[in-house]
Amino acid sequence: MAAGLLAGIAHAEDNPRLTIKDHKFQPQQIEVPAGVKFRLMVRNDDNTASEFESFELNREKVVPAGSEIPVFLGPLDRGQYPFFDDFHRDTARGVLVVK
Amino acid sequence: MRPIRLSRRRTVVALLAAGIGGTVLPARADIGELKVYTPLIETGVLEFEYRGARTFDSDPAKNGAEAQKFSLGYGLTDWWFFEVYGAWARDPGGSAHFDGTEWESVFQLTEPGEYWANFGVLAEYERVQNRKADSDEIDFGPLIEHDFGPVTTDLNLIFSRQTGPHLTERGVGFGYRLQARWRLLPQCQPGLEAYGDLGPIGIINPLPEEQHLFGPVAQGRFTLGSMPGTLQYNFGYLFGLTRESPGGAVKLILEYELPL
Fold first, then answer.
1. Chain-chain contact of B186 with A71 (C-beta, under 8 angstroms)
2. Has the ipTM of the complex gone over 0.90?
């Protein structure tokens, strides 16, 4: 955190978490504060790979089956940032709400 | 990056005409290398790529050079993407021929968004087909990516060295590739690209003898209905900025990515 503050970027105290189960995100909506850098932890409890993807967040990252990955995000402006599982587009969708 | 030379044959002729030895050749751009790399890779994704380019110039010696490449790549881990290319080329006024084989790796060094920029490394070995007149080559260099709001910029700094059997350039060459693109829509991201080869390190070529290309591009990606995977494109026209550069070059890259 000290390094982040020195760099002029605030960091979120807690890392939000997402779980992929039955090819759906849980929860489907996450709220984070604006203007801070944070690490979104994405865990895949399914037995097939998923891909966390968001054009608005400019992130695209494979989540192997049964594993957890960090997705570094922010600082973000207020707004809504949709995300989805690129390998299961029909079922796995969510939104990051920045307040 | 193989210097952006129009054809190896032309380079050899120029070298012979200049008397060989430590002669410094004009830096030339390889139009088969008109691609800017991102340091970010996707684990477990299979990629089929087509890459093509053609030059245009009023000088017949620089007009009509073509390069075509086909490749197969795979994201072996979350930090290593490996790709194999077959390359074909046509010299100005010549006929198309098989040009060589390339083995390429992209190593992702940092997590996207973790630091001020995302960092990676490109490493490539190219084995030429015409072993009586040209040389194999090793390319190596950092890949740097940074987002300025909705604009993503990628900078590739490429160091190259020929390894024989017939050297046409001595020393370690240096070149750059740069792209800035506006993430307007997934399907359409307009941008600008620049490519250049400055020649061997430590030997400063006069600017007119270097090759620099710059111009507009568009890229994007589409899903294919019920088919798995995505189709990505990158298309553009680059203008030559120096006397050694071709007047222009059109480029097209198509990539089909399939998660396995």
1. no
2. no
Q: Which domains does chain B have, with CATH numbers?
A: 8-259 (2.40.160.40)
DSSP A48: S
**% of chain B beyond a pLDDT of 90:** 70
Residue A12 DSSP class: -
Task: Kindly report the nearest CA distance between residue B186 and chain A, in angstroms.
Answer: 7
Q: What is the pLDDT of residue B23?
A: 37
Domain ranges of chain A: 2-98
Q: Do B114 and A61 touch (CB under 8 A)?
A: no
Mutation test of the interface with chain A: which of B43, B118, B185, B232, choosing the one with the most A Cβ atoms within 10 A?
A: B43
Pick the CATH number of A2-98 from 3.30.428.10, 3.40.50.720, 2.60.40.420, 3.40.50.2300: 2.60.40.420
The residue among B3 and B45 whose pLDDT is bigger is B45
The position carrying tokens 């950092």 is B142
- Please compute the mean of the pLDDT values over residues B162-169 and round it to a whole number: 85
Please report where in the chains the tokens 């995000």 appear, as a residue.
A73
Q: Give the tens place of pLDDT for each residue, B119-161.
A: 999 999 999 998 888 899 999 999 999 999 999 999 999 999 9
Which residues in chain A touch residue B114, judged by CB atoms under 8 angstroms apart?
72
**Which chain B residue has its CA at the smallest distance from A72's CA?**
B113
Does B93 contact A at CB distance below 8 Å? no
Least confident of A95-99, B62-66, B87-91, B223-227: B223-227
| Mean pLDDT, residues A77-81 taken together | 95
